[in-house]
């Protein structure tokens, strides 16, 4: 089996080479890019199984490119770990909200970095195996709940046929609620399901729930999510 390919997008050559050395020592294959333009060229040569992405790049913000990746059906499910020196709560929330699967702050411990890479690959592709090979036949996974229809395969959500504009984390939260209407999810439940390997606290859940409600406002699904005081959140059993 071919080792997973990690694309390291980092403009500082010394850090880029250090990350590559650490990952290759754990038997991962690596490709390197110092900008978004170089990363796109690397994609054309070989699609990576995971991207380690710096937030600040010379030609474009890493967050903006991450949003582009998440908005494309070809790369919506591609694992991305942000690797950045900006580690306060607001920056973590912004990165995760943009669609990052995890957020590693520099300076990092080599074993922690590779452990997080393996954890994300397991969630996305199973046991760290390459995730860029699609199955011979893929069945679309669709969730319906009242006026809500969510196609997890296509990363699309509608309320009474009207498309919803959701970030990656908002989509994951809403699909979790819609798949189990009536069940109450505590904030810790949601952290474990949506941010399983990221170091964020329960306030992150509240921030994303507020954004999710704003995204649903004015749609047929605006009253679908309820707050259960002192416990958490749930989707109304409709």
Secondary-structure blueprint:
Blueprint: E1 5-9, H1 13-25, E2 29-33, H2 36-45, E3 50-53, H3 62-71, E4 80-84, H4 89-97, E5 102-105, H5 110-125, E6 142-145, E7 148-151, E8 156-159, E9 162-163, H6 168-179, E10 184-186, H7 187-194, H8 202-216, E11 225-228, E12 232-235
Parallel strand pairs: 1-2, 1-3, 3-4, 4-5
Antiparallel strand pairs: 6-7, 7-8, 8-9, 10-12, 11-12
Helix pairs in contact: 6-8, 7-8
What is the CATH top level name of the largest domain?
A: Alpha Beta
* Tally of individual helices: 8
Total count of strands: 12
Q: Which strand order spans the largest sheet, edge to edge or round the barrel? A: 2-1-3-4-5
Q: For the residues shown, what is the average pLDDT?
A: 85
Low-confidence stretches: 126-138
Beta content comes to 15-25%
CATH superfamily of the largest domain: Response regulator
Rg (CA only)? 18 Å
Dominant shape: elongated
The number of distinct structural domains comes to: 2
Q: Give me the CATH architecture of the largest domain, please.
A: 3-Layer(aba) Sandwich
User: Which class best fits the helix and strand makeup?
Assistant: alpha/beta
- SSE ordering: EHEHEHEHEHEEEEHEHHEE
Approximately how much helix is present in the residues? 25-40%
Largest sheet: 5 strands, parallel
* End-to-end distance: 46 Å
State the CATH topology of the largest domain: Rossmann fold
